[in-house]
Q: What sequence folds into this?
């Protein structure tokens, strides 16, 4: 059981804070720009709307799936897998040559990227205990919420600088991989006073 000040002196908390913020930035940017990227890729607005529905619906469904799996497998391993899977789903979005492929890619992205946040909160609870869980997540959450809030604007600026959604989505793929890399460095912290 850690206090907030004890948790703040551990490396894993800062790695998880960075991972959660980067994941929020990447998924928030994707969620906001996915429709425009699909239309820019030559697909119809109707298909783009269907893709947003698939993405959102898959995210809602997968919360139960990942919660169930977190009872049986390491949250850290699942979160790394989700971040890597989100990056791969964006590869599918970029390379989609058919309506079925782009719809499947949107579904895959919803299944993966929409649940990184939940798994990281479970990881915080398991690493730091439940006594100060509210204080610890209250410290971490604003950073990821700021990242999520600025994501649409950051995505628009990066799109304008790079000149295409393909390039923007390559940056987003990289951000999901950075999230996975940060999570791979997270190890359980030493107990307070140890």
A:
């Amino acid at each position: 059981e850690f206090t907030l000040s004890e948790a703040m002196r551990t490396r894993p908390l800062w790695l998880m804070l960075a991972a959660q913020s980067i994941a929020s930035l990447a998924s928030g940017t994707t969620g906001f720009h996915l429709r425009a990227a699909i239309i820019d890729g030559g697909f119809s607005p109707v298909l783009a709307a269907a893709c947003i529905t698939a993405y959102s619906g898959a995210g809602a469904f997968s919360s139960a799936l990942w919660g169930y799996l977190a009872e049986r497998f390491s949250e850290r391993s699942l979160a790394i897998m989700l971040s890597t899977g989100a990056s791969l789903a964006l590869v599918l979005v970029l390379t989609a040559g058919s309506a079925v492929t782009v719809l499947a890619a949107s579904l895959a992205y919803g299944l993966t990227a929409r649940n990184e946040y939940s798994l990281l909160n479970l990881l915080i609870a398991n690493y730091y205990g439940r006594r100060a869980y509210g204080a610890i997540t209250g410290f971490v959450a604003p950073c990821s919420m700021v990242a999520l809030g600025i994501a649409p604007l950051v995505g628009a600026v990066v799109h304008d600088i790079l000149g295409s959604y393909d390039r923007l989505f390559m940056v987003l793929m990289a951000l999901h991989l950075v999230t996975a890399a940060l999570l791979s460095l997270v190890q359980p912290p030493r107990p307070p006073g140890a």
About this structure: The chain has a mean pLDDT of 92. The CA atoms of residues 91 and 173 lie 7 Å apart. The chain has eight helices and no strands. Helices lie at 4-8, 11-40, 45-70, 75-95, 99-113, 116-128, 133-162, 165-185.
